[in-house]
């Protein structure tokens, strides 16, 4: 007899761990085993697990109202949009349930912008190693064989360029290009930050050609790099930006932020979402934004980043056979590995510290932004134990 097809569609290669409780930077198994969590649910639990202020606001909202649909005004949604507009380049926001949905709207917004101008531009330039989600549009945008194989015909309109190839970019970015879509720090691609001068150069090229600059800050946004959004380090602003992951602190929430100019085509009836921006998600999202933008919060992230980086440099220096270097910004850090990254992730797990593999043989360290200095020290000690165990 053949084994039955799994009740859960087997699209994931899961680690055989399961947790019953989260407390700040810690995840707890039923056995009581405690793991130091440097994954944050892949950069989602920006404020750690079960942050008391988020638990409280979710409770309160759950008792009042869960969902009404976007047939009606949703005060919490309006307040969150206003908070994001106040804190960023954006003049308008649309709420989604995920990063993928944000990518879909960003693509639609670009197309509508050019369509309304009566200009036939449809090409969106994207980059190798990118990750924008798993919808048909998002996999076409990223373009990698790994994500697209078997799912053709792919949505047309994307041209994928090599990462870091200025000549290729200059050659491709002419006045037929509708937009450039890029992650200021590639996450899945292996914690690859776009240097500030490149992002500034890209902004200039877009200004010269009229192409819209679309930044995917789903992973690197919401304080992850030590600024509210990663592009702030370069001192530029995009036309459109995708946000998700950290903004909900664990509650599914995403957003597209845009200038009024870029969003000008998106009138009533052009887009929608049943769940997007519902009262539960927006109540939590507003609290997350309030905490991350409070005085001193991001300064603390940058201090912790410096400490963690320094300790990780030490780890790399004492295990040059396993590690090549430390990369990334803020608390979005990567260890470029010489040994297979998945072996190191496993060894770390055995040392009770959780990390995430990424492309380019990197392991990602994405702790809660609320991790303490003691926990950072403990995490690197555990990584050191993991490294020793591999000798
Ligand atoms: C995770 C991610 C997405 C997709 O977000 P989902 O919420 O999984 O749909 C898009 N872009 C980037 C950069 C991401 O890291």
Describe this structure in words.
The strands form 4 sheets. This protein has a 7-stranded mixed beta sheet with strand order 4-12-11-10-7-5-6, sandwiched between helices. A 4-stranded mixed beta sheet has the order 1-2-3-15. The model has no long low-confidence stretch (mean pLDDT 97). By secondary structure, the chain is α/β, with parallel strands linked by helices. The termini are far apart. It has helices at 40-43, 52-64, 75-87, 99-117, 136-142, 145-148, 166-172, 196-209, 279-292, 297-318, 341-350, 373-389; strands at 19-23, 26-29, 34-37, 92-96, 123-127, 158-161, 177-182, 185-186, 192-193, 212-216, 240-243, 254-258, 323-329, 332-337, 353-354, 356-358, 362-365. The radius of gyration is 21 Å and the shape is globular. It has 2 domains: 19-52 and 295-389, Alpha-Beta Complex (Aspartate Aminotransferase, domain 1); 65-292, Aspartate Aminotransferase, domain 2, CATH 3.40.640. Helix 3 (75-87) packs parallel to helix 9 and helix 11 crosses helix 12 (373-389).
Total count of domains: 2
From the 3D coordinates, which CATH architecture of the largest domain would you assign?
3-Layer(aba) Sandwich
**Compounds present?**
pyridoxal-5'-phosphate
Question: What ranges have pLDDT less than 50 throughout 5 or more consecutive residues?
Answer: none
Question: What's the arrangement of strands in the largest beta sheet?
Answer: 4-12-11-10-7-5-6
State the assembly state of the protein chains.
single chain
Largest sheet: 7 strands, mixed
Which CATH first-tier class of the largest domain would you pick?
Alpha Beta
Q: What string gives the helices and strands in order? A: EEEHHHEHEHHEHEEEHEEEHHEEHEEEH
Shape descriptor reads globular
Query: Structural class of the helices, strands and pairings?
Result: alpha/beta
**In DSSP terms, counting alpha (H) and pi (I) runs of 4 or more, how many helices?**
12
């Amino acid at each position: 007899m053949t084994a039955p097809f799994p009740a859960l569609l087997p699209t994931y290669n899961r680690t055989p761990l399961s947790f019953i409780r989260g407390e700040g930077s810690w995840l707890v198994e039923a056995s009581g085993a405690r793991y130091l969590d440097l994954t944050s649910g892949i950069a989602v639990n920006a404020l750690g697990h079960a942050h008391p202020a988020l638990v409280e606001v979710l409770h309160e909202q759950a008792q009042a109202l869960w969902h009404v649909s976007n047939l009606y005004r949703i005060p919490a949604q309006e307040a969150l949009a206003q908070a994001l507009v106040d804190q960023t380049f954006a003049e308008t926001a649309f709420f989604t349930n995920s990063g993928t949905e944000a990518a879909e709207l960003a693509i639609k917004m670009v197309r509508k912008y050019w369509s309304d101008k009566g200009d036939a531009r449809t090409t969106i330039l994207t980059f190798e190693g990118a990750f924008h989600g798993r919808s048909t549009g998002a996999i076409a945008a990223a373009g990698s064989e790994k994500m697209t194989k078997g799912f053709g015909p792919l949505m047309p309109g994307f041209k994928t360029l090599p990462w870091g190839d200025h000549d290729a970019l200059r050659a491709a970015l002419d006045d037929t290009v509708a937009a450039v879509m890029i992650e200021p720090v590639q996450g899945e691609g292996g914690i690859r930050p776009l240097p500030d001068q490149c992002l500034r150069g890209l902004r200039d090229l877009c200004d010269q050609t009229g192409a819209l600059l679309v930044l995917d800050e789903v992973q690197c946004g919401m304080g992850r790099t030590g600024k509210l959004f990663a592009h702030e380090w370069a001192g530029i602003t995009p036309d459109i930006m995708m946000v998700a992951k950290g903004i909900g602190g664990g509650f599914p929430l995403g957003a597209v932020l845009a200038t009024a100019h870029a969003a000008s085509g998106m009138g009533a009836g052009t887009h929608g979402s049943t769940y997007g921006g519902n009262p539960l998600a927006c109540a939590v999202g507003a609290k997350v934004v309030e905490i991350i933008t409070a005085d001193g919060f991001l300064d603390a992230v940058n201090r912790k980043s410096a400490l963690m980086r320094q300790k990780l440099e030490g780890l790399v220096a004492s295990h040059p056979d396993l590690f090549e270097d430390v990369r990334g910004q803020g608390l979005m850090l990567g260890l470029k590995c010489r040994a297979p990254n998945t072996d190191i992730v496993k060894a770390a797990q055995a040392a009770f510290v959780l990390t995430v593999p990424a492309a380019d043989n990197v392991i990602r360290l994405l702790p809660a932004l609320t991790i303490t200095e003691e926990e950072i020290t403990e995490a690197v000690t555990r990584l050191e134990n993991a490294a020793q165990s591999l000798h």
